[in-house]
Amino acid sequence: MTNETSTPTDIFSRRESEARSYCRSFPTRFARAKGSELWDDQGRRYIDFLAGCSSLNYGHNDPDMQAALVEHIQADGITHGLDMFTDTKAKFLQAVEDIILKPRDMDYKVMMTGPTGTNAVEAAMKLARKITGRRNIIAFTNGFHGMTMGALSCTGNSGKRAGAGTPLCGTTHMPFEGAFGDDVDSLSLIEQMLDNSSSGVDAPAAFIIEPVQGEGGLNAASTEFMQGVARLAQKHGALLIADDIQAGCGRTGTFFSFEEMGIEPDLIPMAKSFSGMGLPFAALLLKPELDIWKPAEHNGTFRGNTHAFVTARVALEKFWKDDTFQKELAEKAVLLTSGLQSVAEAVPGAKLKGRGLMQGVDVGSGELAGDICARCFEKGLIIETSGADDEVVKVLAPLTTSSELMQEGLGILLEATIEATQSSKMAAE
Amino acid sequence: MTNETSTPTDIFSRRESEARSYCRSFPTRFARAKGSELWDDQGRRYIDFLAGCSSLNYGHNDPDMQAALVEHIQADGITHGLDMFTDTKAKFLQAVEDIILKPRDMDYKVMMTGPTGTNAVEAAMKLARKITGRRNIIAFTNGFHGMTMGALSCTGNSGKRAGAGTPLCGTTHMPFEGAFGDDVDSLSLIEQMLDNSSSGVDAPAAFIIEPVQGEGGLNAASTEFMQGVARLAQKHGALLIADDIQAGCGRTGTFFSFEEMGIEPDLIPMAKSFSGMGLPFAALLLKPELDIWKPAEHNGTFRGNTHAFVTARVALEKFWKDDTFQKELAEKAVLLTSGLQSVAEAVPGAKLKGRGLMQGVDVGSGELAGDICARCFEKGLIIETSGADDEVVKVLAPLTTSSELMQEGLGILLEATIEATQSSKMAAE
Amino acid sequence: MTNETSTPTDIFSRRESEARSYCRSFPTRFARAKGSELWDDQGRRYIDFLAGCSSLNYGHNDPDMQAALVEHIQADGITHGLDMFTDTKAKFLQAVEDIILKPRDMDYKVMMTGPTGTNAVEAAMKLARKITGRRNIIAFTNGFHGMTMGALSCTGNSGKRAGAGTPLCGTTHMPFEGAFGDDVDSLSLIEQMLDNSSSGVDAPAAFIIEPVQGEGGLNAASTEFMQGVARLAQKHGALLIADDIQAGCGRTGTFFSFEEMGIEPDLIPMAKSFSGMGLPFAALLLKPELDIWKPAEHNGTFRGNTHAFVTARVALEKFWKDDTFQKELAEKAVLLTSGLQSVAEAVPGAKLKGRGLMQGVDVGSGELAGDICARCFEKGLIIETSGADDEVVKVLAPLTTSSELMQEGLGILLEATIEATQSSKMAAE
Amino acid sequence: MTNETSTPTDIFSRRESEARSYCRSFPTRFARAKGSELWDDQGRRYIDFLAGCSSLNYGHNDPDMQAALVEHIQADGITHGLDMFTDTKAKFLQAVEDIILKPRDMDYKVMMTGPTGTNAVEAAMKLARKITGRRNIIAFTNGFHGMTMGALSCTGNSGKRAGAGTPLCGTTHMPFEGAFGDDVDSLSLIEQMLDNSSSGVDAPAAFIIEPVQGEGGLNAASTEFMQGVARLAQKHGALLIADDIQAGCGRTGTFFSFEEMGIEPDLIPMAKSFSGMGLPFAALLLKPELDIWKPAEHNGTFRGNTHAFVTARVALEKFWKDDTFQKELAEKAVLLTSGLQSVAEAVPGAKLKGRGLMQGVDVGSGELAGDICARCFEKGLIIETSGADDEVVKVLAPLTTSSELMQEGLGILLEATIEATQSSKMAAE
């Protein structure tokens, strides 16, 4: 820890709840950020391979978003407007329609939920249950969908579930693709459970799935698996909720993580990078025929963050109007894969996880992964772990990271991995 | 409706979910806002007696907050930092300590929850259950605490509860003060239920109460009632959660709505005006000895909105450093009471509700109240209803509203009330 | 304790679960029973004022029931027939129709549930929820309906509820008549809670109520209260479940405890004395139009105990064919009231509870009541307590108890009460 | 249907709930039964291959049990004694200790639950949750454990679950051995789900399993599977509940169905044939160290059916004092297997299910199985189906059935099967 944060009378120790977490891995005070770099209050520079857990896909403080937001503020644009109509919201919705939906031949409405991913997930769960008259929602092993009581019931992590202080209800957890190893066909198991009228698994209101599981260890579902889940949902009268909160907004190489998979989710919770600039913002995309909400049936004070409408619109216009950005992502993904292969080779038994700009290395143990990340931080790289046992070192760099910075960061990661692996071997001997 | 919003091909009709609601009462596009006034895209001016449902206690676009936020943005200050340490957060916490806690002799820690009131409530519920090992949370008739599955189970409104699409669990709803008329002592009933070991009401983990029920009809608990609830909580080993999301931040005349009541809530969810400027932001204040959270046991991507740290700090420094603002609030409350008395006199059987700058008039029917608000809108005043049957016309003007504007708004309200009452009488005849 | 039961190697200590309870109050081995008397294996005689908690309304081993049952057995009559048609069942149903339903102008069908009261209650709860599509069942303070998960959720006793080891769900507990003292109108409170659409009390599937609460302290609902509950149920689209398991079969002076109240419950769980002889047997009476069960939708191996069909039929034919028995009950109730008044007078502050042959004395404390019962046992009378704090000494003598035996038992009770009260005074001094 | 039951004014149509079921398959009135035969009121004889769903393992009206019961009744023995001590209960417990526990080197206590299997299961669930402080109970596909709310949540059948009218909670359903075909190792899947701390499957309070699934289709778990479940339970701190309600009391060839498997279940619900004669009776065997029940923490009026104590003791003494009966069972099982093989050969694709005297034939469709059973009834054989789709023709003849009767019954079954199969083929052509 730096001097600033280590004294017992420190303002954070005194006044911020013990629930705080990332600050424990990165014990310094950050003061400034631009693109893929952060600086702490001592002026020390860090490369950011965490990017707000994929909330900063376009990097910190994109100048165009900054400019638009400052202009909006200085013009006394609406800051908070509940869910009233504003020009700002109209322009955002128009951008969603023109830039995201039409080119992809998608027809969805946008529900402004409370500005958190968990709130969009809760809205999706409520709607699926209302529509089907069923309660059971099928979630997947290692899935993460949020921390409020509904979304938490879909989340797999036992520590987070225990935080509820009371049993969670109304969901069935099924194996994600590959959860039982390569030899076991998860989809077939799920289908057999649902087809058996005496399985004890109640007819589902919905399936909720992350096409790439971010917190769960960068498990990337194949097209076959996603299509299979979509087929099962349809067969059993359930909705398909594709939670693209972490994997969406270009993270896997396309705007939606599933858009090349030939499926049409019924409900798509979006958050994290959807605002473009890291502002709190979430929404639920829903097929128009499912929009049976009564006015305010799900509401919330901060639904429709107007500042976020401004930056989200700029993000869409700047990065998604044509395929330039998407092509760059493909190139960067190759770079990342290549760099991570070197990292994986440095750890016996390690293997690559994820896809696109959402990749990492499973180093086999949470202890080693934690040591690697700690050494990275010492060397000026911010990077975190994921997975049930924190065993995956996960790269979530801004999608806008330059090749040079990407290489620099990967170099630090490789160095830290080699050191940590050697240290681990020595400790074992 | 204006031309912009009435066409079937309108972007909002096409792309925004039917869950939208306030836009239905105020069918125009808002473009600009300052202080207590909004302007739509046709340049039409509206006085704001809604204030983002008490999220804009300091008015729209306070110039000092604007300036500080713009400066922060232009200096590449952190926009999104998960829950890492930042100078911005340190300054905010210091301001909370110096300006809010110390002068009130309060000792609380701040938990940065997801930036919605409902998320802070969920965190409070989880913590109370973890601490006590019990599940039952006692909520009150007409209470409103949010729309995610946990908070919704504490919310009274049957329409909102039905939105869950599945039964809600784990709470017991008890009568708020006066719920059964003046002759029945709600507190005594609750005490008898809890004292009877065969009542079927399980030992509570917590009581959750709004000192003034905002959505429930501006029901203001007396000091005696709040002290009684605090005593019952202590007697039965339960925590006291004072939900000050709508009534806090000066709305009732003091920073906390309960601060002159001689009680010390264990947990205090804050949101709405806590950011100062209407930015999404929420927090849970908790007594230090209750801070048993493990790191990230309740987390969320947008916990700790850095932009909100900036504006929230300015709000505390500008309005709460001394008692000037609080004294002004007392004067304005008198003005408001006086104006609303005139309104009440215009409606047979009407009565005043609420306290401080959170007052309204129960006009006896939701139909009449709705007509009054619709007429106000036509006349350039934005105002809404609350209550189980929407029977209360509720004034939630910015606390910074000048006397002149307050008078102007109250004048419109009186005019609309007289017209609506007459129209109602004529319809009845 | 007798020698037989006090040794550590005793078969009961070794092999019967600690869940056993009545044997703790009456620590001897019973060997024989007839009418209202029991004898232990030492030949000691006891008067029975417990009667299997109202399961032996016609006394032990009624000779006509014995004879019919022995004849059935010796003729190789069906002992166990699942729910197949038998002559025995036909005769039982015919007796129910002819002797119970027709004379009372009641039209009900009989559902053979598992042979326990709790099973009949579970069937009623399931059916009410199926019919209404709602989950919430309104139960009452101090109610007791059984110990399986569904029925237990309707039961008030906190110790029994805690036995579930997990939170109970799906019920709302409302105050029984007089629960808050004579000044508070429970019915009005319930009505206000249900009429308030923001009370947080979900629309009920059913009300479940014991017309006289047996375990809860012999609280007898008035006709007005029962009619009020019936009216509320109808008003809110809920079913009325009158749990007559303990109070039925003549215990209050009429076959059904509510039959002179002018109400028509939708569902009537019956058990305890319904078999006549104390054999395990239960049934759910249901209005024909509510009989939407699919075959075996609620089933159970022992539904329709054929031995019980035999004895139940004899009981109906012997005691209920005309009004002779009912008239005797009225006379005995006067005798009982008179005797208990003397008992009550012996204890300062004591008061009578209950009605008909289901009366007792609230002596103010469970300790005193327990002492009285223990002294009764020493003197040859078996009698137990009830109430939330076991504060009521409860007389549940067989309805067939002769005046002489009743007087003898009441005499013992008076004597024990005087002694216990004096002992209690001396201890206090 | 016979004349007696087909008229609309029939007493059963008028007065017995539509929930009745077996009477629909066997539409006649039964009047008398002895051993493995029943006679209806027209004097028609039926061979009983259903035996009260394994409640009549010792046949109808065993003469020794009849005699003992008649003697008990005529001597004014206790009929109903709540859970007081009686000589009758002592003798029963002594027989359990001497004849069942000691020879098998088992140490269990007996909890007298309500006299239904579902009640014993509820008691087991409650105790497991109390002991572990956890809620999740792992049940298996195709499992059947009862119809009250707790037991029903462990039951797989969707029709029966739907009967609850409300979602069921607190259980996780895992695949039984072979549920996903021979290639998938169910045990390994379960272990992986439990070992993965992010699977979303909460730590279990207990596993509940039928060693042979009676209602679920005569699925017999192997020793390896049962040992695996026992090992998983121990590894994860959960109790093992072996539900031997249908498979126990000699049905599989030994007293307990699992006694040759080298496992020691923590809790063993018993019912059905435990009373010997088909009287309502159930109990929970529990390891002494788990007997943490407080007095009456789980209770019920009819716990400890005294008549059943009498017949149950006779059954133990008559059939289990030495290994004669068990040896006979082994021989009869061979006979049964052989007969069913002939049946299976008559149906293309059919296969044998179950073990011991609990075997049947999976004929591939519920329609065919139903037709076979209907034809059997016409020919004087009572036999039923089981399985998720009622696709298994199930033989549950009394264990005491003579070889001649067994052959006769199997002959009818073969004949009916051949006819039904041909009829099915003709219909298909």
UniProtKB/TrEMBL annotation, chains A, B, C, D:
Q: Which UniProt keywords apply?
A: Aminotransferase, Pyridoxal phosphate, Transferase
Any one Gene Ontology MF annotation carried by this entry is:
pyridoxal phosphate binding
Q: What species does this protein belong to?
A: Pseudoponticoccus marisrubri
EC number annotated for this UniProt entry: 2.6.1.76
Kindly give the InterPro entries that the UniProt entry links to this protein.
Aminotrans_3 (IPR005814), Aminotrans_3_PPA_site (IPR049704), Dat (IPR004637), Ectoine_EctB (IPR012773), PyrdxlP-dep_Trfase (IPR015424), PyrdxlP-dep_Trfase_major (IPR015421), PyrdxlP-dep_Trfase_small (IPR015422)
> What is the protein's name according to its record?
Diaminobutyrate--2-oxoglutarate transaminase
Can you tell me which family this protein belongs to? Belongs to the class-III pyridoxal-phosphate-dependent aminotransferase family.
Q: What class of enzyme is it?
A: transferase
List the PROSITE patterns hit by this protein, alphabetically.
Answer: AA_TRANSFER_CLASS_3 (PS00600)
Cofactor annotation: pyridoxal 5'-phosphate
Going by the entry's taxonomy, the superkingdom of the source organism is recorded as Bacteria
Q: Which GO terms describe its biological process?
A: ectoine biosynthetic process
Show the SUPFAM superfamilies listed in the entry. PLP-dependent transferases
Annotated PANTHER family: DIAMINOBUTYRATE--2-OXOGLUTARATE AMINOTRANSFERASE (PTHR43552), DIAMINOBUTYRATE--2-OXOGLUTARATE TRANSAMINASE (PTHR43552:SF2)
The pathway to which it is assigned is: Amine and polyamine biosynthesis; ectoine biosynthesis; L-ectoine from L-aspartate 4-semialdehyde: step 1/3
